[in-house]
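User: Here's a protein and a ligand (zinc ion). What would the complex look like?
Assistant: Let me lay out the input and then the predicted complex.
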Amino acid sequence: MIDYHVHIGKIFYDRKPLTPKKLIQTMDEEGIEKAVVLPIENPEETYWYNTTDNVLKAYKRYKDRLIPFCNVDPRRGYNSENDEKIKFIIEEYVKKGAKGFGEILANLPFNDKRMKNIYRICGEFGLSIIFHLGGVPNQSTIGLTDEIGLPFMEEILNEFPDTIFVAHGPGWWAEISGKVTPEQRNTYPKGKIEKEGRVQYLLENYPNMYADLSAGSAYNALTRDPEYGVIFLDKFYNKLLFATDYLYPGQELPIIEYIKNISIPDEKKRKIMSENAKKLLKLE
Ligand SMILES: [Zn+2]
């Protein structure tokens, strides 16, 4: 198994840090061969940064187990639609081993021009991007924002066809239902999926759209309507990545048992658990 979304280090005020050693120990217990480690370089949500340099340092110690991503806050320096200096920063990280970009937690509209610069550069380097989607613009929320129905995201998927986007977060997963209100968008809505939503539409129609199965938001989306959860995995197995968002010791990770026990064909399960990740990370 490859876990496509974890964090290490001191990031929360009231929780023990997840050390690389403890992360590896949990991976061994759960049968997870490799984990994508995401730096945190935006000031939203956490109390400390965990920089790309920190993640690259951990990678040096556990080269066969950890897959480092890089991160740059889009508000750095004079970043704008075509700021090449951001490209030099990312290029340096790629040379040191970074295999993707994220997690983006910046509270900006999905189509902000500073984000567009990052999307373009990541496409040029073949780096997949993991982003956290929060509420609608001007709501008190963390992560990128988009209107109901994700029009900014669709605009970006069209504008940057060479960039792979991996979605995560409550704002994304609430859109698994065709009936979602602005008040529900950054929450964990319950109840049956009576009408499919924009999640399914974007996964189906855009080759550069993927989603990771991490955190309470994905777990809620898969289990709010258990029968539909299986149908969803069976249909979109090519676009989904097993992931936990493991970030502090003792955290419950119900997605691990869920995915191990779900009844879909083995070859589809293998895609979700590791093969899609290998493809995006260009492993093997
Ligand atoms: Zn995360």
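Summary: The chain is about 40% helix and 10% strand.
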